[in-house]
Amino acid sequence: WVRVSHDEAAKIVAASLKNIAETYSGEEGKRRLRAQHYDEEVIQAMRGVGTQALKFRGGMPLLGISRVLGLYRMANSMALLDAHIRKVGPDAVLGGRGFDNYSWHTDLPPGHPMVTGQQSIEFDLSAVEHCKTLVVWGMNWIATKMPDAHWLTEARLKGTRVVVIACEYSATASKGDDVIVVRPGTTSALALGLAHVVLREKLYDADYVRQWTDLPILVRMDDLKYLRARDVFGGKPAELKNTRVLKPGENEPPPAAQDRMLISEQLREEWGDYVWWDRGSRSARLLTRDMVGKNSRIGDALLEGTVEVTTADGKKVRCRPVFDLVKEYASHFDPKTVEELTWAPARAVESLARHIARAPGTTLFTVGMGPNQFFNNANKDRDVFLLAALTGNVGKIGGNVGSFSGNHRASLFNGAQQYMDENPFDIELDPAKPARRRQYWRPESAHYYNHEDHPLRVGKKMFTGSTHMPTPTKSLWFANANSILGNVKWHYNTVINVLPRIEMIAVQEWWWSTSCEWADVVFGVDSWAELKHPDMTASVTNPFLQVFPRTPLKRIFNTIGDIEVLALVGSKLAELTGDRRFLDYWRFVRENRTDVYLQRVLDNSTNTRGYKFSDLEAKAVQGVPAVMNSRTTPKSIGYEQIADSWPWYTKTGRLEFYREEDEFIEAGENLPVHREPVDSTFYEPNVIVAPKHEAIRPAGPEAYGVAPADLSCETRCGRNVVMPWTQLRRTAHPLADQGYRFIFHTPKFRHGAHTTPIDTDMIAVLFGPFGDIYRHDKRTPFVTEGYVDINPSDAKELGIHDGDYVWIDSDPEDRPFRGWQNNKRDMEFARLLCRARYYPGTPRGVTRMWFNMYGATPGSMEGQKNRTDGLAKNPRTGYQAMFRSGSHQSPTRGWLNPTLMTDSLARKGLYGQVVGKGFAPDVHCPTGAPREAIVKITRAEPGGIGGSGLWRPAALGIRPRYESGSMDRYLKGRFLSGPSKE
Fold first, then answer.
1. Which domains does the chain have, with CATH numbers?
2. DSSP state of 536
């Protein structure tokens, strides 16, 4: 490492961006990429434009509308660089590519847009005051939503029934009236089991089903598509009142001026209208996307059974309502089967289903990050929504589904494109005027970078849709994040097999994280308390608009602001190219008028128009926040659909539980099915659990030229095999006979900040029971260290004592990285070595490790070997690892799910009311699966000091399964004396 000035570092980054863009432009650029063995589809996605290999990421941009979202503004300015290199005009250039956030973190619930068309549904957590029942599903609210924890406990005090569903006895479980501990990755099966009871006992809200869902719509049994009105009645699609149809070439208005949904004329023709069957008249009836809620004309609709419908050309086609298809599938998930499959007691399934159905519209489902982080997470969402819709619990203040994982909704500032997408060829330098937008940058899922820049191909089948196709990653510049590199999924494969192909990595940080260890250039930037440029943020869980005011505090070190780094690199690009527009693009930063950009965002955002940033900043100095001007308080996504009878952002305008797109039919997921996890299962992975069903007709492995018995990791992603539970339960994970028999999952811990730990020593010691400020055992990497939670009975079977060191190994095919078998040097720091903690709160077969901790690097290994104190601390950078080797990411992998890469799914875009289809960043794209790992655990060393004997707390008899007589008396409350009433 060489310490240089920010100015010198900016010169290096600017020169690197220019060099890389030049190197990979044109036909010569294509030749170079082919020589590096990139997929041809990936090369063609470049379109011969070198700037498309430049990747940018502002980590969680809602947390900094100017300083973090500025990375995407920088990506947009790369259009100027393309114009300079290829000598083309503004209509022929492209900018860089910007990586996603919400979906990259696996926070996106990908089934939400499948059902609602919306990115996600959520509500302010204070809404729990308005519900009668709260189902906390896979969300460790008490540990990860600490500022909002009081809403849960206070609602319970006021009479709300709290039901906690988790894969362990979590901190939140202690606040529940009822607790259901389930097998990880089986949320969809449990939701189907609850829906089964509601359907079997006819407890569903029939009016809600008819008014708001696609369940009455007829599906053709010949091609498994919705029956279209044009098939039956002929003619053109009906005129719509609640949707504006854009003519070819007609531009959409800015997001804040969009007062209803917009779709293109082409999509309106393609999607058409739909059909339901009127039992009274025994005839087919027209259904448009206007006909929802009070505008619904569905009366006595056929919900169960089969009908033959005569089409406009005189043919007869057999059809079934979606409701009938779903009910038949859900009938497989009776309470006894669900108990075997999920571990949820049958009587709990029955009682909870009846309880929810007893009071329609009064149950809130708060679903957390945990269920999101499995491969088949979309089905989890579709099935939870099914249960909620059957009981009238979508879109109401006291009855709704909410996903709570990540602070993501940048669209709260839907005028952000004023800043992010200002046209770099037509820059507005009058601070009183709005910018003119033109987006030259292109979004891309970071999951392809994590997948070695490869799309998903299984056999002869390309699963990655053309709208999703990545480009080669030749530079990566990011800020406000450790998740994209330091705590990336499949971390060791990324740093060993991906980074050598990336020619520049630039990081902006104020804390030396794992990402800094692997970067080429690190810009030291201001911490939150040192910001000299104002900024603003908001939240998906509360109503506040919060401003970061300019601080009078002096900088601790020689840092500059994140946004100043961007402006500085822009100035160096101006010098290199002679184009002063690189300077003007950041003029208000250089003039200390960053508030101009923020005011433009406020003026053009639906929720903030009318606010003056100067007023907000002045109040922020006094500690006074503002409130977002949302429709309701608490805000609740979906409220307008139900209260005002507005369509959902789907083809039908309804909550859709049937997916008619070819990709879903081919995957066997046209119905909201349960699929086993792709790795974290004791059974054959990724199997569709279903009896014979005429609507489930997936393309099997043979259709792709793959052997049916091929269960390799990549093949698994696109392997469609159907089994009933009675057959599946007799199978085993392909590695089970080699000792890989533990599910390994990695939730967040309370003493951490997103994808970083708190590595100041006095806080770090709070990470579990292995904190020792004196480091009596010199093997420990720091004053604390990473550990795995394991059920004591499992540990004893393996000969592992509480506190012992263990090796944790995942699928040897490609973990901890591809090619480890012939790379002992890198395997030394990549293989996971950690402590084992006895934890009775986790079921047998399920292990847990917090995912915040800093992993081992070559530098930390060097520190262990060469430092006199043995700290796992890089002697050159001071980076402090919390593992002796490896990390929680050693067993993880990059996974790509075919149904998250379609070109056909209807969904709303990020910022406005336009409904399109196919890829949309943070809406419809891959999410990965960081909790998918089946592992083998092997004892490495005794836990006692220096590797001798028992770990001291176990030897003292104060740990589970080692209880001394005194500890036993304490646990039974016998340390108390006096009358029992006292």
1. 6-104+410-621 (3.40.50.740), 742-892+931-956 (2.40.40.20)
2. E
